[in-house]
Each structure stands twice: as C-alpha cells, then as structure tokens.
C-alpha cells in the first residue's frame, strides 16, 4: 500500500508563511515580466516542496479479523426453567455459525452472578463485556451478541458511554407466558425478646396465579401456623420467640402449577432471641469459702440478674433468741419456689442440705420446673453424701447421679473424660492439653455413681465422676460433686480455668446456643464467597452436610475432624443468596452476599430492559423461543452499510483492519533527484530570462 507523507524541515506555520511570501513574489513577477515569471514560480514551489520534505511510504499489511463478542449470561435467573437448555442450544448454534465467517473472530464471554456483597449483586453483563474487550481497539469490534433472559442490572444509557460503537444484538431466553409466585418480606425483625411475640409482615406476589394461596409458617423446622391469604395484599404473622440465639422462621407459599421456580416461594428469617436478663437463683446451704466464688462469677456477668440467699440459721438451731433481736431475712420459700419459680432461668443449690426449709411439695415444683424447660445446678459438698442429701428428696428423679455416702478427702487433679473432650462446656479448657492437666489440685470429692446412659465430662480422684450433665425433657441439670472450685479462684498451686468452666457450665444450663452438644453452624469467611461450616457433635464421626443453594441446587459437603467433637470444612458458594445446610435433623442458614439477591427478586425474562440500548446501537432484540416449542437462532451476516438486522438475521459491521509487517520510506524532497529538479528549474529560468533580455 502506497501513501504520501510529509515531514517538514521547518514548522508548518513557518512553511505556510514562506508559501504566502512566494505567492506574493510570483504575482508581482508575473505582473512585471509576464509569463516568463512562471519559471520563478516553479523554482520557488520546488524550494517550498523541499522544505515540506515529502516522502513516498510503502506499507506491507496483513488483514486481521474483526471481533464479535458473545456474552453468555450464566447468572442465577438463567438457571430457571428451560433457560439453561435454551442457552446451551443457542450457544452451540452460534459457535457453528461463527465458524463459517472467516473474517470475524468470535469471543465468548461467560458471566455469572456479580461477586460483590450487599448492594453489588445481580447480573453485570456490560461490566464483564468492557473488561473482556479491554485489549481490542473499538474499531475492530464488528458486533456484540448478548444471550440472556433480560434480567440485567448494569444497563448503560448507550453503548457509546462505554466507548463501544458496534451494534448490540440481544437474544432473550425464556418465554413470554411464564408464571411464578414468590414471598416478599415487608417487615422482618432481626431481634426479639425471649418469651415475647414478634410480628412479621409479608406479601405473596404472583403472575399468572389464582389470587389466593396457602401460606405455612415453621419455627426451627416445626410447623406452627397455616393460613389462606389473598395474593398481592400484605399480611401479618405473629410468632413467639422460644429461646435465645437464632429462632429460624420459615414462611412458605404453596407453588403454582407449572410455575417458573419454587425457590422464591420460601422466605427464611433468622430472628435472634435476646434475653432481657438471665435470672439466677443461688441458694447456699451454709457459709463456706466457695460461696463467694459463685456469687462473684454471676454478679460479674452483666446479662445475669442474681438472687442469692444463704441459710445462716437452719430450723433446728433453736437457742431461744427472740425473733425481734435477729437481723436475718426470712427465706421467702413460697414466693421463690411456688409463685415465681418460672421467672428464673437457673436455680443453683450450693452445698444445700435438706434441712426441712423446703417441704417436699416444693421439690416437686422444682422437678416440674426443670422438665418444663428450667435449669438446675447442684454444687455438692460433704452434705450430699449424708442423710440430708438432696439425692434423698424428690429431686432424685432428675439428678444425673446418686451419692455412695462416701467423701474422698485427698488431693487430685480434675481431668477431662473422653466425653468431656468433645463436650463444648469442657472442650479445650486452658491447660487441658497436657497430661496431667496444668491445673491446681482439688482436695475433696463426693463419691457417686452416674445414672445409666450419662457419662461425666470431668473426673476426679480414683476416676470418680466430678461433673455430670443431663437433659430432663425440656430442661437441663448439672451435678458438680465437689465444693473445691474456689481453690482455682484463689490460685492454689497456680489455680485453674474456673471462670471458663463455671461460666460455660452456667450458660449451657441456660441454653446458650454456642454451647449446644449437637449444633450446625455456618458463616462466611470474608474471602470472596467462601463459607466455613462447623458441626459440633458428641458422636465419633459427623456425617456429610447437604447444602441447598438459592436456586434449589443441592450439593454434599464432607467434614473433617478439627478437634474432638468438632468437625469442619469450607466450600465456595456458586451463587449469591441464602444457603440452607442440613445435617440429620439440624438446619443452619448462611447468607452469601445479600439474603434476597436481585436475581430472584424479578425472575421473569424480559425484552424491554435492553431494547433501548440495543436499538440505539443499530442492533436488534428478539426471543429465541419458537412458537412450536423449539428455538430460533437468527442468521449471521456481514453488512457494510444499511440496516444491521432483519426478521431472521443479525448483521455485523466489518472494519477492514490490518497489521503492518513493514514500512519503506522514499524521500522526495531531498537527495540527488530533488537537487537536479531544482537546478533544472533555476537554469531554465536563467536561460529564458537571459534570452528575453538580449531580445529587448
């Protein structure tokens, strides 16, 4: 390819000034000397041309293919109904047809859900398009094809704002007669007070529905309500917060026949149960050195409201002192153990002996309180082995062990049993990793035998049970068979982790979710879409976890042992939204990105959203679903002018781009030939003007 190039020896303004001056001189010369002055004009023109330094440029070029970008939408909404099959079929056909266009290079761009967090989810096709074409000059882009359902969340005002001048053709999957029903949350409280009701407001939205639907409500997997509601109208639900920690509320609407997806028919709302105050009743049977340890521990916890009584004057102590001269407060037994017993989350008997302070009917009330969901802790001393032991009262029905009427007085180190190594109350207690544990000695233990099926979590002297836990219907009971925990608090022989042990024990009794023996938990790690799953269990092994994604797709995750009683694994979420995890009868939820992704808020395929930007670029938009049930893929054509789309075809605009392999430059204004031309012009001017002068 030949072209003429100029590289002036002086700046262009100077060259232009020379040209103007030469033109004026030529005009004056012609007026003065006539046509013979034209030779001077030629000479001046050659001088100016030499200063312009013209060159003849020869380029060796190889034509390059234009690029056609094919954006394939693989977002969450594209996995619904027939859309995956349509997408795969159209993509395969496009690959075949682009293979026949020898001057266009197809570039397929697969786009999933956006990787961002809350407020940055959805389908970002145009963002992916500009990133994928960053290495391609705009003039080489012959056209863009988007294969999508039309649910796109980053649509620009026009392609020109993205620096693209190519036509955009949109091929829309899905059908125009799709029907669907979904739950939309209007008011969803994140927290609730334990024992109180919360109100949830929601609405059932539908397209192609019946106008009414049946909604079921489950709490922690158990159905608590079912009602028929009108669709398109907000409705309210009232639910009771049963316990602290997550109370998982599921609202599900019955599906429509043949609806697009049932994934958005269910809304999951974890409501964090918060206790206003954990009320604890501590009854000390007599003053002793460990009494203040319990009191200080419970008083230091801001979430605990402690009521503490110490029996200083048992009934049998009758010395004739007038009541008016005693400064003791009467033990309000009826108020505590009859009228207000259900107000307490935990009752602790600390070295308490049955001294006829509490009648048998009150012990029946305590047993009933435990079985209906209360908690009981017996911190036993020598009195537990005597005839006044609580084990000889009606409390024996719920105690996890029976004393053998013997107290062992010898130093010993508390140790985790095999069960205790897995139990969250005692697992990984500081100092337990060594053998024997790096703890100070205790000096006394009550000999006892645990009930059948109950394994202690701490053992003491001679392998005797030291701490045993049990569940009684809805309630919990703990039996600590020594009153020596205060030695750790006082730092005897370097002490021990009494705060960890006693606090965990008290909160396990009060049903702290983090201390459940059988639990399934999941949370995002903060590294992209990575989710960490933990399974707490008292079993030797933990089975696999079934994960259900926002689109209904299931996968199985195997767990590995992290430490005794705790198994864990991580997985990469394939899509944004709420994931449901199941292991046996345990259920957990984790939200990757927003809990309600934009992908599932509006699932209907749409040709209107992209119509403006497609037609504004000179392209077209159409559905690929044929009336007979198949698909229709338009023909591909290269068009140099005119319309870029028709009823059954879409066009691409070529650019005739090429790459330059080599360049040869031939200067015309300098060198021997330029000098010869200039000399010839000057000589001709001299001869002609000299002859004319002689003639005159």
UniProtKB/TrEMBL annotation:
<dbReference type="InterPro" id="IPR029062">
    <property type="entry name" value="Class_I_gatase-like"/>
</dbReference>
<feature type="transmembrane region" description="Helical">
    <location>
        <begin position="665"/>
        <end position="688"/>
    </location>
</feature>
<keyword id="KW-1133">Transmembrane helix</keyword>
<keyword id="KW-0812">Transmembrane</keyword>
<protein>
    <recommendedName>
        <fullName>Glutamine amidotransferase domain-containing protein</fullName>
    </recommendedName>
</protein>
<keyword id="KW-0472">Membrane</keyword>
<feature type="transmembrane region" description="Helical">
    <location>
        <begin position="38"/>
        <end position="57"/>
    </location>
</feature>
<feature type="transmembrane region" description="Helical">
    <location>
        <begin position="12"/>
        <end position="31"/>
    </location>
</feature>
